[in-house]
Design brief:
Elements lengths: L5 E6 L2 E7 L1 H13 L3 H14 L4 H13 L3 H14 L4 H12 L3 H14 L6 H17 L5 H19 L3 H14 L5 H12 L3 H14 L4 H13 L3 H11 L7 H13 L3 H9 L10 H13 L3 H14 L12
Antiparallel strand pairs: 1-2
Helix pairs in contact: 1-2, 2-3, 3-4, 3-5, 4-5, 5-6, 5-7, 6-7, 8-9, 9-10, 10-11, 10-12, 11-12, 12-13, 12-14, 14-15, 14-16, 15-16, 16-17
Length: 331
Amino acid sequence: MPQVTGQIKNRGNNIIPYIPDGDFYFTKGVEAFQNRKFDIALKWMKKAIEQKPNEPLFQCQMSVIYTEIGAYHAANQLLTNVLQSSDYIDCYYLIANNYAHLGLLTDAKKYANTYLDKEPEGDFSEDAKQLLELIEIDDDEVEDFDLEDEDELLIYQETAFFHMEKMEWEKALPIIEEMITLFPEHQLPKHDYAQALFFSGQTEKAIELEHEFIEEDPRSLYSLTNLAVFYYELNDIEKCNKYIQSLLNVYPIHEQQKLRVAVTLARTANYNEAYNRFRSIAKGKVKNHASYYRWYSITAFHIGEPAKALQYWKEGCNLHPHLANESGPWN
């Protein structure tokens, strides 16, 4: 980070001891960013760039703020401008990260690999490698079906989803069982089945299944989220926290997976962490999930934002009328 400097002007006997320059504004912007005051951080960073428009570090930091508030296109526009006037290598990783958030995985992979080619031991080299691993995992989870199978699978998925979002576990169970029989290679229904089993009262069987799954794939997002919730519901906080700690290091690419992590953190009373995850979700992509509104409003209420809790609860009830039958975030 640049050292904070100032300019001193001597006008006769009148000494103006300090006139802020670009480095000062940059430092103030970083401080505001670290305190998660993103609007203020952007104002300081804009002033810094006005003072030093050719300083790539300032523009990169501003792009990071845009990324944090979900303005990925604006962030990439800044970074692209930097690359047009300089070869500031960090831009390649930052662009890759933004593309990943936008779901443009091919572009994300290209820029992450470009960064590693140029800076194999750079500051973001480990982050770039992890991003590429996430993209590969995401690719692995995309399964190939012929068109007829896709249509049939979609019907099962939507029906199961409908009942699970309404927490109608007994109705969801037979549908998921049939889906597993017809599509045994598809992984998500197996975790949905474990969840439905648990909340239908078959807790031991559900936990046993998830332990089998996580032995096969220790990085499974669905096993980590399910087991965290299962043990929390059983009041085994020590085991719950074991899986929560693993989840805190997971930042999925797709919105539905981001939502799964956020809901899990909320359901296990990790409200501050849950709130940050909910804020990073593109609402337009999860509007069909009643759980988004249910747990976002509960989270907002618990971190001391009752107005926001009420806003999301009302919005959720308008889109998903069955939520109105629940007690709301304040209960």
